[in-house]
Amino acid sequence: MSTKITLAKGLNMGLRQAMEDDPKVLVMGEDVGKLGGVFRITDGLQKDFGEDRVIDSPLAESGIVGTAVGLALRGYRPVVEIQFDGFVYPAYDQIVCQVAKMHFRSRGRSTMPMVIRIPFGGGIGAVEHHSESPEAQFAHTPGLKVVACSNPVDGYWMIQQAIACDDPVIFLEPKRQYHADKADLDESATPAPLFASRVVRPGTDVTLLAYGPTVKTAMRAAEAAATEGRSVEVIDLRTLSPLDMAPVFDSVRRTGRAVVCHEAHVNLGMGAELSARITEECFYSLESPVLRVGGFDTPYPASRIEEDFLPDLDRVLDAVDRSLDF
Q: Alpha-carbon distance 310 to 265, whole Å?
């Protein structure tokens, strides 16, 4: 029996299931309890599980994550919500210096089973500090796992898998997709592994890599390219650290071309690492350079011009055309 859900609903259901399965799972963050979160991801959880398990915290991200570190060391599985992507930086010291290092610092004696949920990306007309893409900063930090869901079904399964993981997981959620689309969820299905990429549209001419909010953009680009007789294979990376490159290498060896798309700045972004790895492993299969499409190297702009900043259909198709014309 399948149920149609949005990404927001899938995450809510996944959190609920994880809390039902394990009484050590706690949810904490700003407005996650009585309000149910600004995006309503935790709606109804405090009512059903109580204030001891769904905790409304002060407006202090460093304190939220620091408290979660202590809880994780005591055997709990805290799920921390950072209300918006740009609010994570006050907690950056805790994440990089404590969360990421504790397992190694203790020589494996202490695990750090915590999830840090971060709504990320733009496209919602928000003000400054509400539309950022900080994923490369966390993927660059050893000791952290970083994943990005892109659709309702993945949201449901991936949040549960992240909570069950004994390593700390940065869980990125594309905020403009929370209520955008619906998909059929079969709760009896076997989910894909958490740290695995997935081919979401097969193709033969170009490999198009995306994650989080740009997966939808990539799919639209592939559909548009198909009307011109060009076959674009789309891969949803899903995991940014560790990167699952086997499906990527297999695809690029077949297509001979690769384009990477993400909302974050192109300079020193995830696209740079992906380009380097593809070039190292698939050099003799490449028919053109690996191209990157992303945000410009400026702070995130005012909402009235954000659509000019974000990679869109035209910019992705232009990169596909340049790759094929090389």
A: 10
Return the SS3 of 121: coil
Instruction: Encode burial over 114-148: b for 16+ CB neighbours within 10 A, e otherwise.
Output: bbbbbbbbbbeebeeebbbbbbbbbbebebbbbbb
* Residue tagged active-site, from 103, 129, 130, 179: 130
For tokens 């805790």, name the residue. 94
Class of the CATH domain delimited by 2-186 = alpha beta
106 contact partners, CB below 8 Å, separation of at least 6: none
The answer to whether 2-186 and 198-325 have equal CATH topology is: yes
Token pair of 45, please?
A: 């959880």
**Tokens, residue 314:** 């035209």
158-217 confidence digits (pLDDT tens): 999 999 999 999 999 999 999 999 999 999 999 999 999 999 999 999 999 999 999 999
Distance CA 293, CA 261 (A): 5
Are 197 and 237 in contact by the 8 Å Cβ rule? The answer is yes
> 95, 143 in Cβ contact below 8 A?
no
Q: Do residues 205 and 317 touch, judged by C-beta distance below 8 A? A: no
Extract the tokens encoding 157.
């399964």
Which sequence spans correspond to the domains of the chain?
A: 2-186, 198-325
Rounded distance between C-alpha atoms, residue 191 and residue 34, angstroms: 31
Compute the radius of gyration of the chain from its Cα atoms: 19
Report the C-alpha gap between 309 and 296 in whole angstroms.
6
103 a catalytic residue: no
CATH of domain 198-325: 3.40.50.920
User: Which residue positions in the chain have pLDDT lower than 70?
Assistant: 1
